[in-house]
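Re: [ENG-882] Designed sequences occasionally contain unexpected residues at chain ends

Forwarding the minimal case from QA. Structure tokens:
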């Protein structure tokens, strides 16, 4: 029986690559003015019902250099931090998928 190389490559793909692609797409979607950074106002606009307090909490956690905006580097690092905190790839994939298509 011949195994499909396509299904084999998909099965062995690193799930982190797909997560990072989706995380980057989320960043671009939130960054509506395309200045390559996310501010609290961008978060509030993107999430709609997302409260100002929640935006501040996210900013505090993700804005590592405390300049008041989230850079793409900080955003991508946040998702790596989530993984290191013990979340498994299926959980993270579900989260980024919901965020991307919300």
């Amino acid at each position: 029986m011949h195994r499909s190389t396509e299904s084999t490559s998909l099965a062995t793909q690193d799930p982190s690559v797909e997560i990072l692609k989706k995380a980057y797409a989320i960043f671009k979607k939130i960054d509506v003015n395309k200045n390559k950074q996310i501010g609290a106002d961008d978060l509030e606009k993107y999430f709609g019902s997302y409260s100002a307090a929640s935006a501040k909490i996210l900013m505090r956690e993700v804005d590592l250099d405390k300049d008041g905006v989230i850079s793409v580097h900080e955003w991508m690092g946040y998702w790596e931090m989530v993984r290191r905190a013990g979340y498994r790839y299926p959980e993270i994939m579900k989260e980024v998928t919901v965020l991307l298509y919300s």
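QA comment: On inspection the terminal residues look reasonable. The CA atoms of residues 5 and 11 lie 10 Å apart. Proposing we downgrade this to a documentation issue.
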